[in-house]
Amino acid sequence: MASKVTSKGQVTVPKAIREKLGIWPQTEIEFEIVGNQVIMRKVQGRDKRGKALIGKMRGRGTVTMSTDEIMRMTRGKRE
Q1: What's the gap between Cα 46 and its chain centre?
Q2: Rounded to an integer, what distance in angstroms lies between the CA atom of residue 3 and that of residue 1?
Q3: Cβ–Cβ < 8 Å for 28, 45
Q4: Sign (positive or negative) of CA dihedral 21, 24, 30, 32
Q5: Rounded to an integer, what is the distance from CA 50 to the centroid of its chain?
Q6: Residue 48 Cα to chain centre, angstroms
Q7: What is the DSSP letter of 17?
Q8: Which residues pair with 34 in a beta bridge?
């Protein structure tokens, strides 16, 4: 797969590659020059903070309302 570099130095990473590597908006990537090649890789370990926060919060909810009840409450009455 080939991509062209824009005048701003940007390159589009093909969708199949982004999906395979789990590269989503705001994902950090790093570049390394090896000989005459550029290696691009996803920065590892950056997404652990979010997973840790979710892990700490899991099971702490004390509300006995259903999801539908919460959605109705947050959206207000609709007529």
Answers
A1: 10
A2: 7
A3: no
A4: positive
A5: 10
A6: 12
A7: H
A8: 37
Distance (Å, whole) CA 24 – CA 59 = 28
Report d(CA 46, CA 69) in Å as an integer.
35
CA atoms within 13 A on the CB side of 76: 1
pLDDT, tens digit, 9 for 90 and up, residues 25-77: 888 899 999 999 999 998 876 556 677 777 778 777 777 888 888 888 888 76
Q: Does the CA dihedral 43-57-74-65 come out positive or negative?
A: positive
Q: Which amino acid is at 48?
A: K
How far is 62 from 33, CA to CA, in rounded Å?
A: 52
* Per-residue pLDDT reduced to its tens digit, 34-44: 999 999 998 87
| Domain assignments of the chain as residue spans, ordered by start | 15-75
Predicted TM-score (pTM) of the model is: 0.49
CA angle 67/22/25 to nearest 5° reads 75
